[in-house]
Design a protein that fits this description.
Length: 592
């Protein structure tokens, strides 16, 4: 053909060259490959062998990349699961440590059901988000960036389609986020509510059955359950709506690419194969955004859960140890002093205690009595420093309790709460709960003093008898006696009994007080009671009414000097017991 080509004008070659250069780069590459292949054939090269070798080489590279991709997916899955579980573990531990340091004020602010939800459900939501998020973060950006690079490499002129797709996808995600975000906040509160109702129903099951309120409680649970279900359905419908929208968008985008690409193919600016490849790359980009959209499904709820957990972690307890704690004064160990103490609960309008002053000395029994809600238990709570005083000061062993480490303060106190709480385990583990080691002889002695040995011996396991959670496997009186034994086991300087004899019969009460008088003769006993018989032998009795001390003295003295005490005694003691007490008071005055 060369002689014929030599007759053609130079301008014809220039025009053909310019036209060829205007073609799509992919077409030029294809033409170059065809011409190169033709030259190789003319030179006698084995093109079939070269093509097979090329296929094998590229195939091995593809297999290697696939193997590396699979290994990377397994590694990312392993690491994401491990990181998610580790973060959840640390969050639960941080929440538990923070909650353990809470005072009663913080517990009043966060309900028990809410704290349980935050420690379990909210942490689980964050764990799922982290586990899925790491996978998506490692996978989606690489997939999307690779798709953009390859698509632009195939055709720069169709890049605007990718821009439109990205803008529309981001818009869809933002709309979805705006719709579901408020619902997630409501959802977590409803989970709190459901847990609260369930917990109350299970704890109060005996009361519910006794008053035939099973139907009412079932309805109450059903309402809370349906409210949570309705919110869940709304959120799930919104999330499910995302998938068909994305599929419609992907199909519409495919049609757009075919329509635009067909024009480029007709103008010889693109090959059909390149158009199909471009379509696949765009679909890859859309898939990467779908993965990100899946991540956005977890983010709103995880964000709400994170804020709820953060509320707990950022809450600073009101009861904290001082920076420079003082030490207990050894010569004043066991001494408890209230000096013009006033206290009011957070949010309350009036004081629960007003200008309380008294001194409880070692070797003496100090008792408090009064009507329900008068403030007796509040006094005990201030000594243990479950609350801090509003005015005045509480001194233990000569030191203001606010200047002592909580561990040092509570280490010298044996506390028996109004509601006896036992831990799951055995009788022995409950008695020795506050001490590291205890001999069988010591445990036997303490159980005898607490009048618990009688029912312990009734079981073949004795001290190895199993105690259910909360002490559900023993009676109220048995729980109280084991709680008293637990307080005695630490051998404290101060014994605090907050209405701890209410479930005991009079015979057991009398025997227990007699044994305590001998066992705790060197300690300071502070007793809160409702029964006159429990405290009538106390060295000093304080009558509390509406947060104020309205009378103080011994039993027979208060019968004459304090009207409130006389009313309580008249309602509990027989006429002969009252007469004998009044005669004792008259005899004491005669002796003076």
């Amino acid at each position: 053909m060369q002689p014929l080509l030599d007759y053609l004008p130079e301008s014809w070659f220039d025009e053909a060259h310019d036209k060829a250069m205007a073609m799509d780069s992919a077409l030029k590459e294809q033409s170059a490959m065809m011409l190169t292949g033709g030259f190789y054939r003319e030179l006698g090269r084995d093109m079939a062998g070269m093509e097979i070798a090329y296929i094998i080489r590229i195939g091995l590279i593809m297999l290697l990349i696939t193997a590396l991709s699979g290994a990377a997916s397994i590694l990312v899955g392993y690491l994401s699961a491990r990181i998610g579980a580790g973060v959840a573990r640390d969050l639960r531990q941080s929440i538990y440590k923070k909650v353990v340091g809470f005072s009663h004020t913080e517990f009043d602010r966060f309900s028990t059901a809410s704290l349980i939800t935050r420690s379990t459900n909210d942490v689980a939501v964050i764990q799922v988000m982290i586990t899925m998020g790491i996978r998506m973060i490692c996978y989606a950006p690489i997939m999307g960036a690779g798709g953009v690079f390859m698509a632009v490499n195939k055709s720069v002129s169709m890049s605007w389609i990718i821009g439109v797709a990205v803008v529309v996808l981001i818009g869809i995600m933002l709309v979805l986020l705006a719709v579901v975000m408020p619902k997630f906040k409501i959802m977590q509160k409803l989970i709190d509510r459901l847990n609260l109702v369930a917990r109350e129903s299970l704890n109060g099951l005996m009361v519910i059955r006794a008053f035939s309120r099973t139907g009412f409680e079932e309805e109450r649970f059903d309402v809370a359950n349906k409210e949570l279900t309705a919110i869940n359905l709304f959120v799930n419908r919104a999330m499910v709506f995302l998938m068909p929208v994305m599929m419609i968008f992907m199909n519409g985008l495919t049609v757009l690419i075919i329509w635009v690409g067909a024009h480029y193919v007709a103008e010889s600016q693109m090959q059909v194969g390149d158009m199909m490849a471009y379509m696949q790359y765009v679909m890859q980009i859309i898939m990467s955004f779908m993965f990100i959209a899946m991540l956005f499904i977890f983010i709103p709820r995880a964000s709400v859960s994170a804020k709820r957990i953060n509320e707990v972690l950022e809450t600073e307890p009101q009861i904290v140890d001082p920076r420079k704690p003082l030490q207990l004064e050894e010569d004043k160990r066991g001494l408890v002093e209230f000096k013009d103490v006033s206290f009011h609960y957070e949010g309350a309008k009036e004081n629960a205690l007003c200008n309380i002053s008294f001194t409880a000395k070692p070797g003496q029994t100090t008792a408090f009595i009064g009507s329900t809600g008068a403030g007796k238990s509040t006094i005990i709570n201030l000594i243990v420093r479950f609350y801090d005083v509003t005015e005045g000061e509480v001194r233990v062993a000569g030191v203001d309790v606010r200047h002592l480490k909580q561990e040092d303060l509570r280490g010298c106190i044996g506390y028996v709460p109004q509601k006896s709480v036992l831990m799951s385990g055995t009788v022995a583990s409950n008695i020795s709960y506050g001490v590291d080691e205890m001999t069988p002889e010591e445990m036997e002695k303490i159980a005898e003093v607490a009048q618990a040995l009688e029912f312990i011996d009734e079981s073949d396991e004795r001290f190895e008898r199993e105690i259910a959670q909360g002490g559900a496997s023993v009676s109220g009186g048995q729980r109280q006696r084991l709680s008293i034994a637990r307080a005695l086991a630490v051998r404290p300087d101060i014994y605090l009994f907050d209405d701890s004899f209410s479930a005991l019969d009079f015979k057991t009460d009398t025997a227990l007080r007699k044994a305590l008088a001998t066992y705790t003769k060197d300690g300071t006993l502070i007793i809160v009671a409702q029964r006159i018989s429990t405290i009538m032998d106390a060295d000093q009795i304080f009558v509390i009414d509406q947060g104020r001390v309205v009378g103080s003295g011994k039993h027979h003295e208060l019968l004459e000097s304090c009207e409130a005490y006389f009313e309580i005694a008249s309602s509990q003691l027989s006429e002969s017991e009252l007469v004998n007490s009044l005669r004792m008071s008259t005899a004491d005055r005669g002796g003076e």
